[in-house]
Amino acid sequence: MIYKIYTDGACSGNPGPGGYACVILSMENDVHQPIIITGYAQHTTNNQMELLAIIHALLYCQMGSVIDIYSDSEYVVNGINNHLKNWKKNNFKDIKNGSMWEELSRLLEMHSVNIHWVKAHNENKYNEIADQSAKKAIELGKKGILKDVFTGMFSYLKR
Fold first, then answer.
1. H or E element: which one contains 18?
2. Is 121 left (phi over 0), alpha (psi -120 to 50) or beta?
């Protein structure tokens, strides 16, 4: 499969309640109807939400996919493109969000992935959808509609 994925994380306070979203476009059919996945955490950081957006997107994708990921997070884009190999060599010791980076590294190895930085709030349709969806996830989480991903799906990740 071939995908284009737009991701974003948001936090109301940093740390504070947070949300993330990934907008997934399958490029193998003529209909580019996006799939939107969101998540919420009661107490988190913006960087953790940025990482979880990509982790959740990669979990969705069929193994062996070709994926272009677009993120407005310099933290994530620079981490993947410039630091991940060295962090892996050092077993992700002494880095913030080490278990998330380790999980992201594991998932990246299952696909052929290129990650691209996009400027936030620059009228990129899918980046804007990801941004709005991440913020909406915070609202829904605060109302109890979304559950904390760190007590559920991602409880194995250390923060």
1. strand 16-26
2. left
Provide the residue-wise pLDDT of the chain in tens; the chain has 159 residues. 999 999 999 999 999 999 999 999 988 776 678 999 999 999 999 999 999 999 999 999 999 999 999 999 999 999 999 999 999 999 999 999 999 999 999 999 999 999 999 988 778 899 999 999 999 999 999 999 999 999 988 888 876
Domains and CATH numbers, the chain: 2-142 (3.30.420.10)
Whether the model clears a pTM of 0.85, i.e. scores above it, the answer is yes
Give the three-state DSSP class for 101: helix
The residue type found at 4 is K
> Active-site positions?
8-9, 50, 72, 121, 131
Query: Would you mind telling me the total number of residues written for the chain in this entry?
Result: 159
* CA dist list (Å): 62 to 2, 54, 147: 9, 14, 25
Q: Which residue has the tokens 């997107």?
A: 57
